[in-house]
Design goal:
Elements lengths: L1 E4 L9 H4 L5 E6 L12 H12 L4 E6 L5 H5 L4 H18 L3 E4 L11 E5 L5 E6 H4 L20 H10 L5 H22 L2 E4 L18 H10 L5 E6 H5 L6 H9 L4 E6 L2 E5 L2 E4 L11 H10 L6 E3 L17 H18 L2
Parallel strand pairs: 1-2, 1-12, 2-3, 3-4, 4-7, 7-8, 8-9, 9-12
Antiparallel strand pairs: 5-6, 6-11, 10-11
Helix pairs in contact: 2-4, 4-7, 8-10, 10-11, 11-12
Length: about 350
């Protein structure tokens, strides 16, 4: 199913517009108003689902219930926070939402150094350059960075970065394992599939460890708790930022075990070492062979939700960078056309 991300009632793009995209019948959303670490209630999840269904679509994916930094850091408070996370998963199951996309990136979610990078066709897109990242001023906290579920003041950010000075990749893997050992059984019993998103970009930033960066890392994740509920989000754009990641091989390895529960399909063009720009979805606009990706997903038996991921800003549109209506709608139709051509469905 082709899906579309919607940021709730705060989104400038109404569900009524999304409903008019012929390929889209599923929505990816979240409860953005709930502070990180608090349990999500069944009542709020049910209201979100009803809002989507009132517009003739289904709530297919929660993206995401953020993982509190204390869990990633392995602090003593993590057990209480994991209990809350488990309650959110239970309530997702009770509300009938079956896929939870989440990530385990320390402090920062997806990272870009330009939010309106000009492309040759006159559109603008998200872009990243590792050299430019060194010039980012963190003295104002996260005020100048892309918006996520959590914003930090300068003092909060300093404290977090200091806390991570004692957490390397090995320790972060241990903390992820501790988390998965407790949440996967709850997800399995709640009929919810966990879909861990790769780190974006797939390398260390600001000296912080990032561990979900390759096919080998994704295989390690699903092996920590060997249960069908413990799976991944296959994000083509995130993984392809590292030219060493073979997307088709990753799909064959992970998808063959039926552990790909969600797919983000966007295209990028690598512009240097640890440098890339996001592009239109069709294969010839970037470095990703989207037909090969979707073919591999189909051959692996994937039948889950697919999202047209970040889009360019085109036709004079303004709004949240990466999340305009027009280019994501074009992407959704392109993906649907490819999928029909590959599957005959």
């Amino acid at each position: 199913m082709i899906t579309f991300r919607w940021f709730g009632l705060r989104d400038s793009i109404p569900l009524a517009y999304i409903r008019q995209i012929p390929a889209v019948r599923g929505i990816v959303s979240a409860l953005f108003e709930i502070p990180v670490g608090e349990a999500w209630t069944l009542d709020r999840l049910a209201r979100l689902r009803a809002e989507v269904e009132d517009h003739g679509m289904t709530l297919e994916v929660i993206e995401s219930v953020p993982v509190h930094e204390d869990i990633k850091l392995g602090r003593p408070t993590r057990d209480r926070l994991i209990d809350n996370y488990c309650e959110s998963i239970r309530n997702m199951g009770r509300a009938g939402v079956r896929v939870l996309c989440y990530n385990f990136m320390p402090v920062f979610d997806w990272m870009r150094t330009e939010l309106a990078h000009p492309l040759v066709d006159g559109s603008t897109a998200l872009a990243y350059d590792d050299a430019a990242l060194t010039k980012v001023d963190l003295s104002r906290g996260t005020a100048d960075l892309p918006g996520w579920a959590t914003a930090y003041s300068a003092s909060e950010l300093d404290g977090l970065l200091d806390s991570y000075s004692s957490v390397d990749g090995k320790k972060l893997w241990e903390n992820l394992g501790y988390f998965l050992e407790r949440v996967v059984p709850v997800a399995a019993s709640s009929r919810v599939r966990l879909a861990l998103h790769p780190d974006d970009p797939p390398w260390s930033i600001f000296g912080l460890p990032r561990i979900i960066t390759s096919g080998a890392a994704l295989e390690r994740v699903i092996g920590i708790v060997d249960d069908p509920a413990n799976g991944i989000t296959f994000c083509a754009g995130s993984l392809a930022a590292d030219a060493g990641n073979d997307l088709v091989d990753i799909i064959q390895c992970i998808g063959g075990r039926e552990r790909i529960h969600f797919a983000h399909c966007r295209n990028i063009r690598r512009t240097g070492v640890r440098s890339f720009e996001e592009t239109a979805h069709p294969s010839d606009h970037g470095d990703i062979d989207m037909r090969a990706v979707l073919t591999a997903l189909h051959e692996a038996g994937f039948d889950g939700p697919i999202r047209s991921d970040h889009g360019r800003m085109i036709w004079g549109e303004s709004g949240q960078p990466g999340y305009g209506l027009y280019d994501r709608a074009l992407g959704a139709m392109y993906l649907q056309g490819l999928w029909e051509g590959i599957t005959g469905e």
